[in-house]
């Protein structure tokens, strides 16, 4: 029953979402992922191009050996890392976590 005593101190807005982080994080990921660095193509271009290729045979799902999965995982992993660090940095700065 000890955990019930701390329930009133739980911060209801624990996520503390901020649309600035989402906007700047998305732009912060789209900019570097759109640089043509992979055989003259960008990661974003390869990912969106593979979506079109896979939709061409829509009822059939993508094969496990399709490059679509590599581009999907890589693009989203980069986006989520950028959003996570953006949330840590933006909220840490606004709430003075990094002050001495």
Characterise this structure:
By secondary structure, the protein is mainly α. The protein is 56% helix and 0% strand. It has three helices and no strands. α1 packs across α3 and α2 packs across α3. The longest helix has 28 residues. The model has no long low-confidence stretch (mean pLDDT 87).
Spatial extent as radius of gyration: 20 Å
Through-space gap between termini: 38 Å
Number of strand elements: 0
Which structural class matches the secondary elements?
A: mainly alpha
Helix count? 3
The SSE string, one letter per element, is HHH
Q: Helicity range of the residues?
A: 55-70%
Q: What keywords describe this structure?
A:
100 residues; mainly alpha; 3 helices; elongated; membrane; transmembrane helix; transmembrane; Photosystem I subunit O
Give the topology, please.
Layout: H1 19-33, H2 43-55, H3 67-94
Helix pairs in contact: 1-3, 2-3
Please give a quick description of this structure.
The chain has 3 helices and no strands.
């Amino acid at each position: 029953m000890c955990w019930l005593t701390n329930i009133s101190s739980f911060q209801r807005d624990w996520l503390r979402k901020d649309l600035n982080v989402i906007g700047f994080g998305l732009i912060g990921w789209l900019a570097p992922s759109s640089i043509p660095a992979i055989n003259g193509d960008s990661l974003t271009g390869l990912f969106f191009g593979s979506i079109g290729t896979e939709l061409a045979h829509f009822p059939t799902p993508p094969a496990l050996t399709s490059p679509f999965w590599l581009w999907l995982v890589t693009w989203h992993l980069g986006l989520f890392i950028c959003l996570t660090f953006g949330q840590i940095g933006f909220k840490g700065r606004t709430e003075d976590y990094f002050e001495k």
